[in-house]
Amino acid sequence: MAELREELKEKLIEQLSLEDVEASEIGDDDPLFGDGLGLDSIDALELIVLLEKDYGIKLKDPKEGKAIFESISVMADYISKHRTK
Amino acid sequence: MKKVYLVSDNIISPLGFSTEENIQKLRANQTGIKEVNDPTIWSEPFYGAVIDNDKLVKAWKKISNDPGYTKLEKMMLLSVSKLIADNPSLDITNSGIIISTTKGNINDLKKDSDEKAYLSSISKTIHHFFKTKHAPVVLSNACISGGLALAIGKRMIQSEVRDDVVVIGGDLLSEFTLSGFFSFQAVSSAPCKPFCKHRTGISLGEAAACTWLSSNKNNVQGEVISITGDASANDANHISGPSRTGEGLFISIQKALKEADLDRNQVDYITAHGTATPFNDEMEAIAFTRAGMQRTPINSLKGYYGHTLGASALIESIIARHCLINNELFASLGFEELGVSEPINIIIKNDKKKLNRVLKTASGFGGCNVALIIEKM
Amino acid sequence: MIKEKYYISDFCIIRDNRVFKNGEQIYVDTESENLKDFAKGIYKFMELKYPKFHKMDELCKLGFLASEVLLKDVENLREDTALVLSNKASSLDTDRKHQISIQDKNNFYPSPAVFVYTLPNIILGEISIKNKMKSENAFFVTETFDAGFITKYSKVLMHTGKASNVICGWVDLDNDKYDVFLAFLSKKGKKELTKEELNKLYRSNSYG
Predict the structure, then answer these.
(1) What is the predicted pLDDT for the residue at C132?
(2) Which of B211, B198, B200, B206 is nearest to B305 (CA)?
(3) How many CB atoms are located within 10 Å of the residue B153 CB?
(4) What whole-number distance in Å separates Cα of residue C170 and Cα of residue C145?
(5) Would you give the distance in Å from CA C33 to the centre of its chain?
(6) Burial of C47 by CB count in 10 Å (0-12 exposed, 13-18 middle, 19+ buried)?
(7) ipTM over the 0.95 cut-off
(8) Of A40, A41, A49, which is closest to B183 when you measure between CB atoms?
(9) Which pLDDT does position A1 carry in this prediction?
(10) CA separation for the pair B49, B35 (Å, rounded)
């Protein structure tokens, strides 16, 4: 699980072009949206694509994303339970 | 400053190839949106408003034997040809021409030569086909393009840069845009339902249209309709998410009313953007309420045409002109139950009513907004 | 016809690995191997702290950087400063990226972060957001920089009271070839705004 969390941090930085952020700066339980990493609505949509492309998870309702993308820990948890690739 | 008259227009859409045909369909509350089963656009059936290619080719053959034009070019050239045929006094050669499109011949991006994917290729096509003196200029300003092009045409005439301007708008329903809106989770799985509680997103459409703006009142036959106010403002908030406060749209409405020297209560009808995405429609409702216009009858025509991108605000302005002429209002198709936080006054049934002034608005990606006041003189 | 006189107060050019402000070279980078690195170099040189920058597509980065250079010394930038930009290739640079993402049916993952940049007017949004300009925006596409049209339309905006100032210009990117020219127009100044003058400034600092 720790490995998946690190992998996700790297992917987030890469996919969401967070150039000024280091993976080590993202806490496992830091909120990704709002005051945390400051991600926005396009980032949320991009994460939905990431789930599908890299882990084979297709959200039935995009609104589910809000809960799943709360933090790296929550995301890693969800992915490990639902991944198909 | 000079007055700017809306003299004549044409619409090429799934609802018909003349403005009159389009109006008849609106009057009958018929939609151009249907289930589309076209694997060249999307691998699965989806709801959209597409122009039948056979019908287009048939109409095209009446004006040209040259098959070397793209679907969008045929739609635009056909539209302008009809405008010219209807208006012997229109001197297209000397008119200023503004072409409003977001993606132009975007399907050509897949081809070996992507020359036609450049938007200026459309300008060249129109330039050569109608032998215009001035090179047409292309405006590509997201979903407000059609309305902004009218505003720009008006300003060019008012500043005496041109006496006559023809605004031509058009966009295709392409895999390119549809896939993008799907990635935005913004496409409705049923025909779109603007301002409705059950709305889930847009339906895309395709269309071309054109309208003739003139400084010369003598060109007008019948009812004299003029654009008396216009403004555009950026939200300065987010490149894709609508402003939560409707800021840019609110500013646009205020400025357009001020230029037309009107009080908000003097507007009889609003033809809104109303794309049927949850956030857009909510933003509009907030902006209209901030402008004190929540009781003004309002509709969105997206339920009839789908979202035709660069053509949409132009088509909706053309329809607004005819609503003024005919003193009629069209039901906001797809609407069942109010689904925005402000109690705006959605038109649920066609209505005959004396109309003098219409407010047309549009908002788009990049945070852009435009408002036009179209008025009976 | 418009009789009032308007002026060009500042201009910025990004061309041939260089950045110019009012005709003077302020930055050169012959090291960077790609546009992304070149743009990042200017970002650092300008000492910008704006995380949104890194999310922009290359066309927006260029337009955004030019606006930062242009507006660096402008005090009290007015909220009604209009943006009138133009180019030849529209957003084709990013359009091609989006097209690649949907070309292969077995690897069909269109990206919203890419798709949003498939409209050229997004640059206007980015500049407006950074500078809190709730103003008139228009993006035109022409074969080459049309100084005549841009001059006319900018004058029209100031003449009709739609804007008190205008940032106008050309921001083009096509297959890694870029060309950027922005000018700040106002009602006061020394260099009068004419088609000829705007064209002359656009053509300055060229090696070609």
Answers:
(1) 96
(2) B206
(3) 30
(4) 6
(5) 22
(6) exposed
(7) yes
(8) A49
(9) 86
(10) 8
Which residues make beta-bridge pairs with C69? none
- For residues C14-27, give the mean pLDDT: 97
Residues B319-341 pLDDT 10s: 999 999 999 999 999 999 999 99
- Enumerate residues 6+ apart whose C-beta is below 8 A from C62: C14, C35, C39, C171, C173, C178, C180
The pLDDT, as a whole number, for residue B7 is 98
Which among B370, B322, B6 is positioned nearest to B164, based on CA atoms?
B6
Is the CB of residue A53 less than 8 Å away from at least one CB of chain B? no
In the block, which residue shows the tokens 């109409």?
A: B59
Greatest extent of chain C over all pairs of C-alpha atoms, in Å? 61
DSSP bridge partners of B244:
none
Percent helix / strand / coil, chain A, rounded to 5: 60, 0, 40
Q: How many CB atoms lie within 10 A of CB B56?
A: 17
- A45 has a chain C CB within 8 A of its CB: yes
The CA R_g of chain B, rounded to the nearest whole Å, is 19
Across the interface, of B120, B182, B240, the residue whose CB is closest to C88 is: B120
Q: Running DSSP on this structure, what letter comes out for residue C21? A: E
Q: How far apart are CA B63 and CA C155, in angstroms?
A: 39
Which of A41, A48, A62 shows the shortest C-beta gap to B241?
A41
Q: Which residue of A has its CA nearest to B279?
A: A41
Give, in degrees to the nearest 5, the angle at Cα C26 between C146 and C137: 35
Q: Which residues of C touch B124 (CB under 8 A)?
A: 143
Q: What is the pTM of this model?
A: 0.97
Q: Give percent helix, percent strand, percent coil of chain C, each to the nearest 5.
A: 40, 25, 35
Using an 8 Å Cβ cutoff, are B334 and B203 in contact? no
Q: What is the pLDDT of residue C206?
A: 80
Length of chain A: 85
Q: Which chains touch C (3 or more CB pairs under 8 A)?
A: A, B
**Token representation of residue B165:** 């301007």
- CA–CA gap between residue B285 and residue B335 (Å, rounded): 14
* Helices and strands per DSSP (H, E), number in chain C: 7, 8
Residue recorded with tokens 């008025």: B375
Q: Which amino acid is at B94?
A: N
Q: Give me the phi and psi of B7, to 5 degrees please.
A: -90, -50
DSSP state of C119: S
Do residues C19 and C42 touch, judged by C-beta distance below 8 A?
yes
Query: What would the 3-class secondary structure string for chain B be?
Result: CCCCEEEEEEEEECCECCHHHHHHHHHCCCCCCEEECCCCCCCCCEEEECCCHHHHHHHHHCCCCCCCCCHHHHHHHHHHHHHHHHCCCCCHHHCEEEEECCCCCHHHHHCCCCHHHCCHHHHHHHHHHHCCCCCCEEECCHHHHHHHHHHHHHHHHHCCCCCEEEEEEEECCCHHHHHHHHHCCCECCCCCCCCECCCCCECEECEEEEEEEECCHHHCCCCCEEEEEEEEEECCCCCCCCCCCCHHHHHHHHHHHHHHCCCHHHCCEEECCCCCCHHHHHHHHHHHHHCCCCCCEEECCHHHHCECHHHHHHHHHHHHHHHHHHCEECCCCCCCCECCCCCCEECCCCEECCCCEEEEEEEECCCEEEEEEEEEC
Q: Which two tokens stand for residue B114?
A: 């992507």
Quickly tell me which residue has 């720790």 as its tokens: A2
Cα B306 from Cα B176, distance rounded (Å): 16
CA B108 to CA B174: how far, in whole Å?
A: 11
